[in-house]
User: What shape does this take?
Amino acid sequence: MRTIKLTLNDTAVTREVEDSRLLVEFLREDLKLTGTKESCGVGVCGACTVLIDGKPISSCLALAVHADGCAVTTIEGIAEGDRLHPLQQAFLDHGGFQCGICTPGQILAAKALLDAKPHPTRAEIQEWMMGNLCRCTGYYKIIESIAAAAGAE
Amino acid sequence: MDGASLSGKAVGQPIKRIDGVAKVTGRARYAGDIELPGMIYGRTLRSPHPSARIRAIDTSRAKALPGVRAVLTGADVPDALYGRMCKDVPTLAKGVARFVGEKVAAVAADTIEIAEAALELIDVEYEPLPAVFAEEDAIQPNAPVIHPETVEVFSGAPVAVHGELVMYPPIRNVISRLKVHHGDTAGAFAKAHRIFEHRFSVPAIHQGYIEPHTCLVSIGADGLVDVWAANKGPHIARAHLAAATGVPENRIRFNPVVIGGDFGGKGSLMDIILCYCLARAAGRPVKMVMNSFEELTAGNPRHSATITLRSAVDRDAKLLAIEARVIFNAGAYAGFVPVPTLHGGYGELAGAYRVPNIAIEVLRVYTNTLPRGHMRAPGAPQVTFAVESHIDMIAREIGIDPLELRRRNAIAEGDHTPLGEMRRHLRCRETIDAGARAFGWDKPKAPGIGYGISIYEHPAGNFGRSTVALTVGTDGRLTIQVGSPDTGTGFHTIAAQLVAEHFATTVDDVEVVQGDTLTSGFEFGASGQRLTTTIGQAIAAASDKMKRELTALAAERLNCAPGDIRIGGDGSFSASGATIDRRALMGWAAARGKAPLTCEGVNAPEPSDRTSFAAHFAEVAVDRETGQVRLNRVVTAHDIGTVVNPVLHQGHIEGGLMQAVGQAMSERLVLKDGAVITAHLGDYKLPTMMDIPALETVLLPGGSGAAPFATTAIGEMSNVAVAAAITNAVFDAVGVRLVELPISAEKIVEGVSKKASAA
Amino acid sequence: MVPFTYLEPASLDEALALLAQHGGEAKLIAGGTGLVNLMKQRLARPAFVIGLRALQPLAGISENGGLKIGALATLQSLATSETIRRTAPLLAEACGHVATVRVRSMATLGGAMAHADPNLDTPPALMALDAQIVARSHRGERAIPVEKLFTGYYQTVLESDEIVTEIRVPAQPAGSGTVFLKFLPATQDDYATVSVAARVTLDRNGNIADARVALGAAAMVPVRATAVETVLRGKPADDRNLGEAAALVRDAVDPIEDFRGSAEYKRKMAVVHVRRALAAAAGNAKRAL
Assistant: This one.
C-alpha cells in the first residue's frame, strides 16, 4: 500500500492504494467515479481515457501510484455545476453519441486536443481522436461535435 | 395518420436525446457501474480444448484460497439447459467441453484478483476428443457428433418462417434446415440463356459494442432476485433465468440500466444464470464482467457462412431463377439466437429483385468453435454480400453496367417478392437513380479508381409485443413507461417524441421511464428494426385510449356530450366556445379524485405490405502494387417515410455505414484449431475515425410504412448491403473479384498478378 | 493484474542500487503501456516494479551537434518537439505513427527500446539515424548501437541491472533526406504490416553517398537492410538503381506469417516499401541540397 496525493477534478485527494492498483480501478472502485469506463483493457479503445496533467492517457494501463502528485481530470470534473462544458453541450447538440459508453473518453480526449489547439482542422481532429473507438455513431457526428465546440470557443 | 398532419413540435424535429445529459456527464448508470454492499466478483475458468471430455475437476486448492466465497463446476449448477430457441447451453460444461473458451468452472471471490488467482488453482483433467471447425466439414457423415443428445426446441419463434423448416434433421450436426421453393426453378434453368454460379464466404465478426457483457445478481433475504444486466430484452431474459433456475418469474426483478451498445449481441443471457448460481452459493451479490479477451474469444459473434448462388438469366439479362445454398456456422451452441434459422439468411437471397423462381436451402450447423449469435440483421449482411457480389459478377460477365442490370431486375410495383409476397409503393429504381445521380455514376474515373453499387430491400420489423403505460398527471404532464432499455438507438427519445406528437406538445412535457420487470409491461426489445414501429403502435393505442378518457372528462367539465368535444391543434379541448387545456382539466379532475389517469397500450403486429429500399455507392482507390484499398467516398440513398428525429436517423445511417466498413475492410475473428486468435482489440480491428470515407446521404421522403405517422426503418438499411458496394468497387478499379470478407490486400495483389500473367 | 511491490527511487543512483539488489525479480516501469499489458495478461510477474518517473532529468532533449534524448521523453513529446522535427524529422515521424495519441502520451522512447517489440516504429527509425542507446548499471555505463540492441522476440542485450538512460542521435550528414513509411492496409491504428525507415545521403553530384534502411514488423527483431545500403553507394538515385537495391531486402527480412499476411506477401511488401522509401528519402535529400 502507498499513500498518493493528487488533484482530482480540482480537488485535493489523499488516498491509500495497493501498489498494483490500476488508475481505472482506483477511480471507479475506490473513488466511485464510474463515469470513466473500462472496455478493451489493452489501451486501444479509449473508453477509459482520463487526463493526467492535461494529457490523455489510458487509465486501464496506468498505475494509480503514477497519479501521485498529478492533476487528474475525469468526466465528472469538466462541467461547472449544472453548466455543461462546451464539448459536453456540443456532443448533446450534434448527436455525438448514441449508447454513450465511449462518450466520457471521447469528450476528455477532445478536451485535451482543444486545450492544446483551440481551432483544429478536421484532419487534426481525426488524427488526434483515432484512438477513441465508437461503434454507434460512425464518428461523423463526433467530429461535428468537436468542430462545433471549437468554433464556439 | 401521415406526415402531413404533424404538429411541428415533436415528430420530425431534431430533439436532443433525453438521456443526453446523463451520458455526456458520465452519470448514466450502466450495469458495470452498479455496486452493492457486500458485492463480490465472479470469474470463469474456460476450456483450452475445442472438444474434450472432462474427466475430473479438483477445486480443493481454489476453495482453500482466502477470499474465495464459492467455487462451482458443472456438477453444482442446475441441469436445465439455456436457449432462446434451442435449449442446448449448459451453465457450466457438464462432462464435455465443446469449444475453446467454454466455461468449465467458476469462482466468486472478494476481489477479481483473488478470483483469478483461484482459477489458476483449479485442476481439470481433460481427455481431448476429435473436433470439427468448418461448417462444410461438420455436415459430412464421418464428422464427430457435437450434440449426440436430443435438443429441446422452444416452439415460439417471434417471426413466421416461409417454406419447409426441419429442426435437427437427419444430417450430421445440422441444427435446422429450411427449404423455400417458389415457382418452377428447374424449368427456368432449362430455358435459361445463361447460367451463373458463384461461391462466397463470410467470417464471424464481433458486434463491437464497447460495453462488455456485464451482470450483477443479488438474492434478497426474502428470496427476491435482483438483476442488473447489459441485456436488451429484460422481460425475455427474466423468463429464461426463471426457466433455468426454477425461481418464479415474479420473484425476479431485472432493474433498469443503460446499455452500452447491442447490435444484436446483448439479447443472450451470457453469464446471468451462472452469476445467479454464484450469488446463491456465496450468499452475496456477485458481479461478472466479461473482459475483452472473453468477449472476442467466447462471446456470441455473427455467424460465419458459406454461400453458393446459381442464377438463370434470359437474353435480356433478366433473372429467371435463383438457387441458393447457405451454410451458417453456429459454433458449439445454438441457444444464443431466438429463431430457428437466420431470417436474413433466406429472406434476402434474391435481393431486391424480381425473381419469379427460387429454390433456397439454408442450414445452420454445429462446429467446435465459439457459439454464434445475432448481429445487426442476422444473416442478411452475409447473404447480401453474396447476392450483391453475384449480381455484379453476372453484369460483368454479360458485359452490361452493373447499375443497369440492377435497374432492369429491380422489383417494381405489381411484382411479387421472391418469397411470393405482394408489396406496395416499391421505389427500388427511384432509390438507385437518386443515389446514382448524387454519386455521379457515369463520371469518368482515373486509373486505380473504382465505383461500386449495392442495393437492399427490407421492411421495418412488425413483430413481437410492445407494451407501454401512459400516465397523465394531475398537472397534465405525460409519463410513458416502457419495458426495455435504450441500447443506444435513441428509442426512449423516440418514445417521448411520439407521445408528445399525439398530444400536440413538446418532449419537455413528457417523461420516459424504463420500468423494471415487475412493474413494466412486456417489451420484446430492440430487434429487426422494429421498435419505432411497434412502440409507435403501442403508444398510439395508449394515446387513443387516453384521449377518449380526457374527452369524457372535458365533456363533464364543459357540460356537453363527449361527441361535442373538439381537440385543438394545441391539444386543448373545446365545445361551444369554451376551451380548457390539459393541465387545467387534470387539475379539475384531480380535485374530484379522477386524476391521474393511466392507459396501457399494446402494439398490434399485423402483416404489412410496406417495405423500403437502400442503394449504396462506393468509390475506392486501389494500389495495384500493395493491394491497399482506400475508401474515398460513399453515397447512401434511402427510401424513407416520416423521420421521427433527423439527428438520430442520420446517426443510424452513419453508424450502420461504419460497421459495414469494418465488415468490408478489417474485421474478422481469425480461428486457429478452433480457437479465436484475434483475441484483443490490437488484433481485432474496428474502424477508427481515420478510416471514415467522405459521406453523402440522399433521402427520398414520401415512402410509407406500417407505423403511426408513416415512419419506416433505418437501423439495418444503413448497414446490410454496404460491404458489397466496396468490393464491387475494388473489382471496378483493378478487375479482382473478392468472394471472401474482409478485403485482403494480399488477395488483391495475387489477383492483379494473376491477371497480368494471363494477359 | 498480478500483485507486486512498487518502488519509486528518487535518483538514478538509487534506481541502480534497487536494480542491483532485486535484479531478475524486478521490472522497470516508465509509461507502463508495455509492462502493464504484459502483467495484465500474466506474461510478466515481477515481484518488484521500479518506477522511473521521479527521474525527470531523464526526459530532456539537448542538441549539441547531434541529439541527446532522455530515455523518459514520451513519444508524443518527441513527435511534436520542434527540435526533433528540425534535426531528426524521421524520428518525429516514427514517434507520431506509434499507436494513438494516448499511448504516445504515456510511452517513452527508452521504454520502447527496452520493450523490444519488433512491430514498433521507433527502432527502425533510430537504426536509420545511426543512433545509440546509453545503458547504465551500478557497474558503469555503455553505449549500444540500436542495431545491436535486439537479440530476439522482445529480447535485448540489456542486462537485468541496466537502465536505458539516453538515446543519442548523431548529427545527420549534409545532403541527407529521410522518410518513414508504415503500411496499414486495414485500420489506421493497426500494427504495421511492414514499416520502413530510410535515410539517403546524396553527394554534390546527386549520387548516393550513403543510405541506411531499417524495417519493423519484418522479422522477430527490427532489421537493418545492409545489403540494400551497400549496393546503392556511389550510384545515381534513379528508379532502376533504387528498385534493384530494394529487391535485395527480400533476403534481409524474415517475416512471421499472421493474419496481417503471409510471409511471402510481407516480403513483397518490404521490397515495395523499401523502394518507395528510398525514392522519397532521395527526393527529400535533393530538396535539401
